[in-house]
Amino acid sequence: MELPDVVRAKAEQAGAGAWVAGLAALVAGLERDWGITVGRAYPDPTEAYVAEAQLADGTPAVLKLLVPRPGQAADEITVLRLADGAGCVRLLASDVARSALLLDRLGPSMYELGLPIERRLEIMCALAARLWRPAPDAGLRTGAEKGRWLVEHILRTWRDLGGPCSRAAVDHALVCADRRVAAHRPERAVLVHGDVHQWNTLQTRDGGFALVDPDGLLAEPEYDLGILMREDPVELMEGDPRERARRLAERTGCDPVAIWEWGVVERVSTGLLATAIGLQPVGSQMLAAADAIART
């Protein structure tokens, strides 16, 4: 099976070697059970085996098999069911036990299209806002729970990697995470995507865009905008980095301080993860930006 190196590394990190070994049999079983034909694998996913598929009636689709992790497939399936195509790709079939999703086939990502950053931010803000809605009974993690997990992840990964960024950057992220955890209010929490960026924003057949690969949380909406703060770290540091938070807040009516703080946390967390799995140069770029911001 054609499995991207990053996905293979994440599977090894998650202790999912048996999943890698059994991938061909898993695909064959889903072809039989869902009446689909699976074609070529995509070369650039980072979290899953993803391949072209075709329904029995010829409709193009995509098969996605997530690296097995507790709750990950269930959360993504829950988000896509609740969204029902609003801002996100449409879910055609799913199997939580096999961490499998069958999705509508979309076109190229924003990254492949080379859209300018301001246009990207405008589109991604609008898509995220379409998804935001109360979902108190969805069974998803809260923003507070994710914030606490991020604290543990940052400390553990920073130590395991031998400190690839400054301790000041780590401490800054931990303070911001503590603030966002303390600020969580269930009555303000909405369904958020949790990983809004240009690689997760694909063109639809009608020329619009849709988000893919949701993590799924019940959190303040600023969490999604914090993801946009961690992305494009080189461009962020070419000017006043806080200006992006202010622009995102103006577009959405959200709190610029909360956007900034989630961005600080996600920049360090994702920079460390990218470094751990060899996703470069983005990992080192995010950590360099975190170091510079922590010094200001």
Characterization of this structure:
- The chain has 296 residues and is of the alpha+beta class.
- Helices cover 52% and strands 14% of the residues.
- It has 13 helices and nine strands.
- The protein has helices at 5-13, 17-21, 23-34, 72-83, 110-113, 117-131, 143-160, 167-183, 222-230, 233-236, 241-252, 256-277, 282-295; strands spanning 37-41, 48-54, 60-66, 91-95, 100-104, 190-192, 201-203, 209-211, 217-219.
- A five-stranded antiparallel β-sheet has the order 1-2-3-5-4, sandwiched between helices.
- Helix 8 (167-183) packs across helix 13 (282-295).
- The longest helix has 22 residues, at 256-277.
Summary, kept brief:
The chain has 296 residues and is α+β, with helices and mostly antiparallel strands.
Work out the number of β strands.
9
**Contiguous uncertain segments of 5+ residues:** none
Task: Give the radius of gyration.
Answer: 19 Å
Assembly state (oligomeric): single chain
**Separation of termini?**
47 Å
Strand order, biggest sheet? 1-2-3-5-4
Helix tally equals 13
Structural class: alpha+beta
The major β-sheet equals:
5 strands, antiparallel
Proportion of residues in β-strands: 5-15%
The level of helicity is 40-55%
